[in-house]
Amino acid sequence: MKSNESKINNDFNKMLNTDQIQKEEDTPQKLFKEYKRFYETESFLEAIEMLTQIINKGFPAAEFEMGKHHYFGSEQLGIAKDYLRAFDYFSKAAFLGHSGALYYLGIMYLKGLGVALDVNQALHNLNMAATQGEIEALDALGKIYQFGYSDILPDYKKAESYYKNAINLGNPPSMLNLALLLENQLRFEEAYELIIESAKHGFVGAIQYGLSTYK
């Protein structure tokens, strides 16, 4: 009996030690929070060093963050705008399932930034991002079908559907975009209600449009 008790105690001690080790380890999530803290406090040298360290651990949010820095350029971090490198980082993050990276890949394919223009691939990536609830992707798809793009003809029903999905996820700019679409279809009462709702959510574009249009 004592032998069994001793074995049980040893097993639980091993579990305890393993749990302590896991807690003490610097997980990618913890390191990413540290990177954010460095960046927000303008400790940019520490921020870029930390971000590079996390990327080596294969953390998709870090790949995405570095992709954005190369997409827009970051003077603070000493990173020049580089669409090729941005595309590479976004591709890695998207492979790991990051919806924001899928959105940016879609935009890059759509505009031919850092990659050959490919509208079909753009739609593929944007739809994958939209399926994961990426608001910007839903809004972008709404605009594509509202105005048409390249060989894609306008499709108001599709545009309205994408905008509504974005609105359901809480995106005030999509309310204004849908309102403009409805105005083109002479659905003025519905459009007005959306503009008011968007303005109530504090979207400046809706407030400015309302003031200039409804006098």
UniProtKB/TrEMBL annotation:
<dbReference type="GO" id="GO:0036503">
    <property type="term" value="P:ERAD pathway"/>
</dbReference>
<dbReference type="InterPro" id="IPR006597">
    <property type="entry name" value="Sel1-like"/>
</dbReference>
<dbReference type="InterPro" id="IPR011990">
    <property type="entry name" value="TPR-like_helical_dom_sf"/>
</dbReference>
<protein>
    <recommendedName>
        <fullName>Sel1 repeat-containing protein</fullName>
    </recommendedName>
</protein>
<dbReference type="InterPro" id="IPR050767">
    <property type="entry name" value="Sel1_AlgK"/>
</dbReference>
<dbReference type="Pfam" id="PF08238">
    <property type="entry name" value="Sel1"/>
</dbReference>
